[in-house]
Amino acid sequence: MGQTARTTKLLLDFSGRASGGTNAGKREHLRATVDILNAARRFYLDFFLAHTEKLTDRVEVISKKTGEIREGIISADVLLTWAEFQTVETADHPTPLPDWNFAQAFPGFPTRYRRSVIKDAIGKARGYLKATKSWHVSGKKKGRPGVPTASNNPTLYAGTFTLDLDELDLRKSFLRLKVYTGTAWVWRHYPTVYNRFFERRRTEAGWEPESPQLVLGKQGAELHFVQTKTISAKKIVESKQDPELVTVAVDLNVKFLAVITVRQHGRIQATRFVSDKGLDQHRYRHLKRVAKKQWQSGKAVKGERSNQQLWAHVRRQNLDSAHKTARAIVEVCEQYPGCVLIFERLRKIKRKGGSTSRRLNRKHANQLKGKINQLAKEKAYASGVVSVEVNPHGTSQYCSRCGCLGVRFTYQAGQRITGRGGKLFACPACHYECHADFNASVNVHLSFFRGAPRKRQRRVRKPRLSEYLVCT
Ligand SMILES: [Zn+2]
């Protein structure tokens, strides 16, 4: 049993007034709200760091499951009540600590926001204390943990926002949000950007909603809806014993981003090649341009960014194809329930030689591999498929049929040219020929079942002198 989480973003409409976007005043309110919440968080962070003994207090905890009483660390809920008791003036408790009067410092602060801020501050303060403690234990001189900053994306608990999704026309959805105008707390409506995937993901079965977060950037604002799902999947060790087990192996490459093979009963059942659709070439051309500009303009100025739009374009393209490739891998997995997804452990490749743009392009291709690996694992786990990494030793060099060391070759003008970088694979022992990436992908299955690809080492015995004598 495990748990997985995912985020669905809902963009607030910050386009121009004419196209129905939020007006400038309301945008200022969002900024002001984030600032005052940060200030309040700072207040409570300082408060908890001044009362560290309370944070690590040991109290008697009653277990919810078994009902037994044992000693444990004070819970965040109890701490929250305690902190409110100390800092907030109420009818029952008219005298908060003189130096820590929250109501005086932040008049009219909504209770829900205050609680979310306190919870945040508890988490941050505890994290800091824990890190400091382990730093003291380690006895290192360097690397002392810094005091946490108070800024964070505000979490919107129920009571601080409502999402009005018009049943008839989802294009007109509004977010009703309690914001700070600089003087008072008011409710405001923010139009959101229509997104047909949002509703689908929000109402999908099995996903439990968590409190959303407001993420305010330079250009726009987003609402991040976090959902969690409980996953029940078999352990790899158990699945490995199953003779009916289906394994899905993935070989990540540059031109074919992923070669996916499905194997059951020792046979390959299905294969899928996911092409990069010319991404590598396209990216190379952009990077060549970047490299040329860098060469023309000389040494980069520190603290200044160059070619920002070009880099953003490259990043977006990489991320997009990573998501699409990962999706393709998961689609294959979903056809075989209970299968195991196998990846090669990613190698640390240091590319040397070639032009600057070529090296840059290789670097990006490697990062893309890592991203596909990560995303595919996450997406697969969300649909109940466990993934495993195997030793990448020799997967692209040995024959997947007989295990002999093979050669790479390619056809050029009808001529067979042997050499590294050839996209085809040939085995000199069994004369098996196939696409090199396909061969590697099949080897990944074998790697999973027996630890490493089988190497049949046929040592050629040198004939003894007596044998020569017999021949002649
Ligand atoms: Zn062979």
Main sheet makeup = 5 strands, mixed
SS-based class:
alpha+beta
**Count the strands?**
18
- The helix content is 25-40%
Low-pLDDT residue intervals, each spanning 5 or more residues: 468-472
Q: What is the strand arrangement across the widest sheet?
A: 12-11-10-13-14
Distance between the termini: 72 Å
Radius of gyration: 30 Å
Please state the overall shape, judged from the principal axes of the Cα atoms.
globular
Name the ligand types: zinc ion
Rounded average pLDDT: 83
Please write the string of helix (H) and strand (E) elements: EHHEEHHHEEEHEEEHEEEHHEHEEEEEHH
Task: Tell me the β content.
Answer: 15-25%
Number of helical runs? Answer: 12
Structure write-up:
The chain is of the alpha+beta class. It is globular, with a radius of gyration of 30 Å. Helix 8 crosses helix 10 (356-382) and helix 9 (308-334) runs parallel beside helix 10 (356-382). Helices cover 39% and strands 23% of the residues. The strands form five sheets. It has a five-stranded mixed sheet with strand order 12-11-10-13-14, with helices on both faces. Strands 1, 7, 8 and 9 form a four-stranded antiparallel sheet that branches. The protein has a four-stranded antiparallel sheet with strand order 16-15-17-18. The chain has helices spanning 24-50, 52-55, 76-87, 102-105, 111-138, 196-202, 236-241, 279-297, 308-334, 356-382, 436-450, 465-471; strands at 2-11, 58-62, 69-73, 161-165, 173-180, 185-191, 208-209, 213-216, 221-231, 247-252, 256-264, 267-275, 340-344, 386-390, 407-412, 415-418, 424-426, 433-435. Bound molecules: zinc ion. Residues 399, 401-402, 404, 427, 429-430, 432 line the site of zinc ion.
